[in-house]
Please model this.
Amino acid sequence: MTIITAISSGGTVFYGYNDGHTLGDSPLPGEGCPWIRLGNWALGVSGSTAIFNILSHYAPDFSEHQASAADIVFKMRSLFIEYGLGKRGSDDVEDHYGIWCILVNVNGEIWDVDEALAYSRIPEGTLWARGSGTDYALGAAFVLAEQNVAPEARIITAIDAAIAHDLFCGGKSQVRTLA
Model:
């Protein structure tokens, strides 16, 4: 399964993932990166392969000039509605899409996006994680938060913790910066 992480430090976003993973039950082709570039933004996806494929296909349609996380999430919701995706339980007021995401931009912002496409800003210096092994990744990040550890090392440690302790997280940790 997929573990995605991100942290912002000094205006730079560092993001990571495990390279031996699946979305749903499908392995990703090639190196298997679950991050999609959307102009000045990048979206890490954990969950549905079908939705990942739709977002990858339409990535060029996301303008380089998307002004806010709201613009990106609105575009995502529009695509999902167009494809008839989403399920709503009898007590739900919104559709759920079977994905959990981290949205980052070149200005250093990080946003959590849940399965109902509700989004919230993650403060600078806070490592965030989504996917299989999230609890292990966030636990490892918590331990390192007060120790002045470099962002890249915090991401690698968080992903390695998920790989080591979650039965469904495999591969090796990868870390990149968004520029």
Remarks:
- The chain has one domain: 3-178.
- Residues 3-178 form a domain with the Glutamine Phosphoribosylpyrophosphate, subunit 1, domain 1 fold (CATH 3.60.20.10).
- The mean pLDDT is 88.
